[in-house]
Amino acid sequence: MEKFLLHACCAPCSVKCVDSLRKEGIEPALFWFNPNIHPYTEYQNRLSALRQYAAGHKLELTEHGIYGLRPFIENIADNIEGRCGYCYWSRLVKTAEYAADNGYSQFSTTLLISPYQRHEMIAAAAKKAAERCGVEFVYRDFRPMFREGQAAARSEGFYMQKYCGCVFSEEERYMGNKE
Length: 179
Prior knowledge:
Elements: E1 4-7, H1 11-23, E2 28-32, H2 40-56, E3 61-63, H3 69-76, H4 83-101, E4 106-109, H5 119-133, E5 136-137, H6 146-155, H7 167-175
Parallel strand pairs: 1-2, 1-4, 2-3, 4-5
């Protein structure tokens, strides 16, 4: 059986992705690398909920990276409007590198469940990361399960975030604009 790594952005997005993969006979290991999430309290809330989810559902969880405000901002400062591309790439290439270095032949991401994320951009970044690192990106369109996954996460009492994670998406949440 091939080892499968699933980049996890949060517990609510993980629930139905993991369920769906398990129904296919794939047992994913979760990988946390999300330096885009700010502020620190939000980062900790999401990580804590993911730990709770992993423990309760007997999932291996690898936590990689640190709270990365400064590196994230340094890498998007000259192109704030292009931040999503960098955000997806940085997380997925780190996932692919970890997979390649640790005996995983395949990976995917829970980012593919959100109807609010740039789905095609995520898939393109993951494919490029897979090619660079010599592992297989397993594409799944998990979006049809989004609402069901959110309901399941609420019923389990997981922390439910209100924005994608970066300080700019938080600003958009409060200001009601998308520049």
